[in-house]
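Please check this.
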Amino acid sequence: MSARALTGDEAAALRQRTHALIRQFQLPASAAEMLPGALTRSETRCGKPNCHCATGAGHPAWTLTFTVKGRRRTERVPAEWAEEVAQRVAAGRALQEAVRDVLAANAERFVLARKRRR
């Protein structure tokens, strides 16, 4: 299945869902800009026989890999966006780690409460 561009209505619906979840869970407003996944830099070859990439280092290429609805996706990232995308991915990862830590602490408190009850 190929990627397709979102319609204006689909993009608006996603924005509304994002902001509703931010309000529901009282997340920081910056969560609206966070990204999941990993940003990676690789080198590609253009195929031109006289290009420097034919024998040396390739052309830099950035990609963002993430999972949505159980499906892994990889999207190219323009080089001029790479720094901002890296910051957004780092912020997303920090939020995910914080939520995991809260859930783990709650699970431990649950276990302690069960032990005390016995």
Notes: The first helix runs from residue 8 to 24. The helical segments are 8-24, 82-117. The first strand starts at residue 38 and ends at 44. The chain has one domain: 35-117.
